From TrEMBL:
<keyword id="KW-0812">Transmembrane</keyword>
<keyword id="KW-0444">Lipid biosynthesis</keyword>
<dbReference type="GO" id="GO:0006655">
    <property type="term" value="P:phosphatidylglycerol biosynthetic process"/>
</dbReference>
<dbReference type="Pfam" id="PF01066">
    <property type="entry name" value="CDP-OH_P_transf"/>
</dbReference>
<dbReference type="GO" id="GO:0030145">
    <property type="term" value="F:manganese ion binding"/>
</dbReference>
<keyword id="KW-1208">Phospholipid metabolism</keyword>
<dbReference type="GO" id="GO:0016020">
    <property type="term" value="C:membrane"/>
</dbReference>
<comment type="similarity">
    <text>Belongs to the CDP-alcohol phosphatidyltransferase class-I family.</text>
</comment>
<dbReference type="InterPro" id="IPR048254">
    <property type="entry name" value="CDP_ALCOHOL_P_TRANSF_CS"/>
</dbReference>
<feature type="transmembrane region" description="Helical">
    <location>
        <begin position="189"/>
        <end position="213"/>
    </location>
</feature>
<keyword id="KW-0472">Membrane</keyword>
<feature type="transmembrane region" description="Helical">
    <location>
        <begin position="28"/>
        <end position="52"/>
    </location>
</feature>
<keyword id="KW-0594">Phospholipid biosynthesis</keyword>
<comment type="pathway">
    <text>Phospholipid metabolism; phosphatidylglycerol biosynthesis; phosphatidylglycerol from CDP-diacylglycerol: step 1/2.</text>
</comment>
<dbReference type="InterPro" id="IPR004570">
    <property type="entry name" value="Phosphatidylglycerol_P_synth"/>
</dbReference>
<keyword id="KW-0808">Transferase</keyword>
<keyword id="KW-1133">Transmembrane helix</keyword>
Length: 226
């Protein structure tokens, strides 16, 4: 009887150990998820400080966006290294990124660039902004559809290196444009120009990656038996 109880306890302890990663992964609130929630919570403050006059508003706004960009990388790094991935975190992370980026693009489009070399060109940021936001909405719908079709299609639309380059140039462009939005002449015009160029490069990479994803999806669909 005692021997049977010991075997049973040993079996339970083994099952508990093997199920620990699954339990950790199913936690609703992990450190990466808390960082992601922090990014979402910072958006109202980000919007409010954008309309503050003077250099203080610019510094605070740029700092908030830069911190959001850093935590975007950090929460993914922590989730992978410390095995803190969760279903809720995987859902929330891209949503937080899209909300922050979309809010930034819309806000920047509300104020034309006050740089002499560009003149009054209100459409200068509108074109890449519409391209980036439109691509993100379309890709979200495409990934949702792919998830309902099976794992093979879902693997095709997973984030690739091209998407990472798009994100990197996009974040850098927005940081530059936020930091220099109140500069109107002289040296900063070069920085503003580099920010605009990077934003157009990001928009181009967005379209390119969308074409790549679409082409890969078509290949998978053609290979499937009818």
């Amino acid at each position: 009887m005692v021997a049977e109880m010991n075997v049973r306890e040993l079996s339970i302890s083994k099952n508990d150990r093997t199920s620990m990663p699954a339990i950790a992964n199913s936690k609703f609130l992990t450190l990466p998820t808390i960082l992601t929630l922090g990014r979402v919570a910072s958006i109202p403050l980000f919007v409010a400080t954008f309309f503050m006059d003077g250099w203080r508003g610019t510094v605070v706004t740029t700092s908030i966006f830069t911190a959001a960009a850093v935590t975007d990388w950090l929460d993914g790094y922590i989730a992978r290294k410390m095995k803190m991935k969760s279903t809720f975190g995987a859902f929330l992370d891209p949503v937080a990124d899209k909300l922050m980026v979309s809010a930034t693009l819309v806000l920047l489009c509300t104020r034309p660039l006050e740089v002499a070399v560009f003149g009054q060109l209100p459409w200068l940021l509108i074109i890449p902004s519409i391209t980036i936001i439109g691509r993100e909405i379309t890709m979200s719908a495409l990934r949702e559809w792919a998830a309902s079709q099976g794992s093979k299609l879902l693997e095709v639309v997973a984030v690739n290196n091209l998407g990472k380059w798009k994100t990197a140039t996009q974040m850098l462009a927005l940081i530059i444009l936020l930091a220099t939005r109140d500069c109107s002449r002289g040296g900063p015009a070069i920085l503003v120009g580099s920010g605009v160029v990077l934003l157009y490069i990001s928009a181009g990479l967005s379209l390119w990656s969308f074409v790549v994803y679409t082409r890969e999806i078509c290949k998978v669909l053609r290979s499937q038996p009818r």
